[in-house]
Amino acid sequence: MHKIVLFISLGFVGLFALDNVWTKDTQGLSKKKSDEIIKSYEAGDNSKLDFADDPKSKTPYYGFKENIFVIGVSVGGASYSEDLSNITGSKTSSYSSYNAKLTIGKDFTLWHENYTQPTRIYLTYVFTKLDNDLDFTTWTVGIRENMEYWSLYETDSYKIY
Prior knowledge:
Helix content is 17%, strand content 41%. By secondary structure, the chain is an alpha+beta fold.
């Protein structure tokens, strides 16, 4: 029981702990500063060590102020053939599968500062057909965090990401 509680606690800590200790804007120490620290350490004098904090990191700001509606469609197929043989003979089997996926979602800022880290709540429907014998569907409801957008097309009135 204690192990289960420990694993759950560590899972929550790992899930909600701050990941990005180093930002993209974090600068390395200059050669002069690095040499001063090394010389001070070698001399045994730690009183001259002066560490400066990183400049405050800027949160990315996306250029949209509306909620984004997301539609995604994907279609795929695969085929596979194998030969099985033994001393009594051989047999070739061929398999194929086809699938179609539809994603509908909504992007907005759920619990972050406005327009800095978008969150997507989405619903997917996947139809998969295996050969001629079997087909099945899969529904998924999910949430996605910390997404990045790349602008594909832009006009004065709208952008497609």
